Amino acid sequence: MSIAALHLVSTRLGTTLALDGVDFSIEAGEFVALVGPNGAGKSTFLKVLLGLIEPNEGHAELGGSRVETIAPRIRGRMASYLPQSRPISWRLDVRDVVALGRFAWNGAPYRRLNEGGRASVDSALAEVDAAHLVGRDMAGLSGGEAARIHLARLIVNPAPLLVADEPASALDLKHQYEALRTLRREADRGRGVLAAIHDLESARRWADRVVVLDRGQVRADARPNTALSPDIVREVFGVARDETGHYVPV
């Protein structure tokens, strides 16, 4: 049984048809990469799945229930979400930011969590190579350091589904690798992972399945090498590999 699904979803944002008849499902233990050019509808796809945007047609499900029927706090226990935009507008210690990922469970800052909660925050920081940032204020972190703290905030929630919008953005090459390896590890532990990813080779390397979205429509939903075939990549992204193996415009 799927842990989340979209059923014939169409969504308009103003006059733009952002999603057009989208069907999708994800199972526990599966890492699905969502790829597509800018403006393809990837962020809208994730938000509709989580009930943050109401579709004009069709519906989304979490755990077999229509998402609009699930109370927000319960929804937060069913899916953990890392949005593309992650502003922090007040001064917070990094452990308190990570503890926000557990808000649906106990809604407390790090110092007020029980022993198990504090251990889960510390473990998440270690998972993303950010334990050395403990005691730092978010306002003083680099973009890459902050991105790792937000990734820890995503995984500290024990929800069965992790949804991430560009989880590797602002990261250097080493930490891009480690961020996606972390998500791969979470899938191997039995959680569903759905991540919007720009880099096609990262999607090919880490995901079990790739969904290619183009102008709101699913152009492919298959194993990575099938979904990212040369023909699909050329048609959707307007690039092809040159003789050195790099993607170039066509």
TrEMBL record:
Molecular function (Gene Ontology), one example: ATP binding
InterPro entries per record: AAA+_ATPase, ABC_transporter-like_ATP-bd, P-loop_NTPase
ABC transporter domain location: 3-240
Entry coiled-coil feature ranges: none
Annotated keywords: ATP-binding, Nucleotide-binding, Translocase, Transport
Matches recorded under Pfam families: ABC_tran
SUPFAM superfamilies: P-loop containing nucleoside triphosphate hydrolases
Its biological purpose: Part of the ABC transporter complex HmuTUV involved in hemin import. Responsible for energy coupling to the transport system.
UniProt name for this protein: ABC transporter ATP-binding protein
Organism: Marinicauda pacifica
Highest classification ranks of the organism: Bacteria, Pseudomonadati, Pseudomonadota, Alphaproteobacteria, Maricaulales
